Amino acid sequence: MLAEVFFEDLGYQTYREVWDYQELLLQQNTQLKAQGNGLSTRHHLLLVEHPPVYTLGKSGKLSNLLFSEAEMKEKNIEFFHINRGGDITFHGPGQVVGYPILDLEKLQPDLGWYLRSLEEVIILTLADYGITGGRSKGETGVWLDADIPGRERKICALGIKCSRWITMHGFAFNVNTDISYFDGIVPCGIENKQVTSLQKELATVVSLAEVKELIKKHFEQVFGCKLITEVRVNSICS
Description:
3-stranded mixed β-sheet; 30% strand; 5 helices; 9-stranded mixed β-sheet
């Protein structure tokens, strides 16, 4: 029987709102486990687009934020130091951000497998557009031309948190993202490598709705699950 994953498209929401929502879903699941009700945990997948924001992982270096506070204010970019792994990254308009809240004990309790699976979802989505995505040794995320010095460019960043095998945070896939925002940071703390977007690679604007549908299809394929669309009357996107 396929695992059920409850899916919500949150549209365009601030980072703070969605971070709080993720925390709520994670806490609901971890509390069930603490009470001995681990079989009652629920899987979730949230897709969202954020206003401009830089997020710095718990072990990231603040020195990788290059813009001053005044420059960020001028450009209306928020900043959060958060509890995921990884260094600094950007979220903003034209980017599809995915937040899976999954109980890996019900799937596969292996963080390496989980990260590679998230990467595979994006690699398969890129293939639908005729683009060959891949991995860079020792670095998470999805890359193009990762093995060609000087041409390596990242198209999707990953950063997660896991508590009692419940995940949160996830991936940020640059679709029509304004790449100039990455000039204000050292993306993921990796110097001398480029960032790209689907729009830049294809030289045309891409439908976010279409990309989301492809991500959903490949998420089901890679994780061997069934997405159940959920609409909450009092959700943060109401």
